[in-house]
Amino acid sequence: MAAADDHSDVEHVFRFFRVHKDGTIHRTHPSFDKIPASDDLTTGVRSKDVTISTDPPVSARIFVPKSADPTRKLPLLFYVHGGGFCMQSAFSSRYHGYVSTICSSADVIAVSVEYGLFPTRPIPACYEDSWAALQWVAAHANGTGSDQWLNEYADLNRVFIGGESAGGNITHTLVSRVGSVGLPGVKVVGAILSHPYFGGTDDDKMWLYINKENEGLQDRRLKPAAEDLRRLGCEKVLVFVAEKDHLNGVGKSYVEELKKSGWKGSVEMKENKGKDHCFHLQAPKDEQAVDLVKTVCSFINS
Predict the structure, then answer these.
(1) What are the angstrom distances between the C-alpha of 266 and each of 23, 58, 96, 130, 255?
(2) What 3-state class would DSSP assign to 228?
């Protein structure tokens, strides 16, 4: 029998997992906790979970700020968590806390989608689940959707889509899809991409592995095509990059390509000096993390 640290039977090693020759997947990052939806007695934010689809399984956590009032509808943030397309959750303490903070600080309704992950549900599940959830939100445009909170409190003429890392990548595909096929009853005002993943790093090998239907390194989800950028279905885009992040370069490249594409909207980029990937989630009380949230809130409310 091979020793516990003997990796002679390993066929592939990626950033978040390794693949053994017998097909076994071994995650190399720590597990994460899931916490239930709740009412936050400090901020007044209420949250609850909803089932969007049972086959495939898609769900979401909805957040409503203390100020929610049917007579004064609020913008809606559709949030897509990160995790390398293979881990994390809208229900983890990290993402619950972050989205709840934005909900309270920006005075916004938030819908945080729980999408399918590799290896149980490989790509394209993450993209299709997120689109299905966004369409579910749109079904509330006339106030007769299945969720009363969205019917009563959400202004679907002020929708924002955002996410970080893998979620930033998915955010791009959603906004591009809105621009291509539309989203009746909804106006997507802006997109927020924090430390987004796109092609151009060693992580491309992992993305190609977990997406057996890929179109190679030119796949539009890896390398956004100029026509996809040109038709982004929103008015403005905010991109965050971190100086020490291995995705710093691809984030900056996305901004430059968007500017050159002929898209008619406005794009803004913020770079956090001395910071690494998703620092704002790991240390939410860090001064630059607090400023990042303020920038997001200003973007939504300006």
Answers:
(1) 45, 32, 29, 24, 10
(2) helix
Distance CA(127)–CA(124), nearest Å, equals 5
Given a contact cutoff of 8 angstroms between Cβ atoms, the answer to whether 96 and 148 are in contact is no
Classify burial at 35, counting beta carbons within 10 Å of its beta carbon; exposed 0-12, middle 13-18, buried 19 or more: middle
Give the residue numbers annotated as catalytic, written as ranges: 165, 245, 277
Q: Residue 152 is encoded by which pair of tokens?
A: 């009563």
Report pTM. Answer: 0.96
Predicted confidence (pLDDT) per residue in 220-274, tens digit: 999 999 999 999 999 999 999 999 999 999 999 999 999 999 999 999 999 999 9
Q: Which amino acid belongs to residue 50?
A: V
257, 211 in Cβ contact below 8 A?
no
Residue 154: which H helix or E strand, with range?
A: strand 154-164
Measured CA to CA, the distance from residue 156 to residue 139 in angstroms comes to 10
- For the chain, residues with pLDDT lower than 70 are 1-7
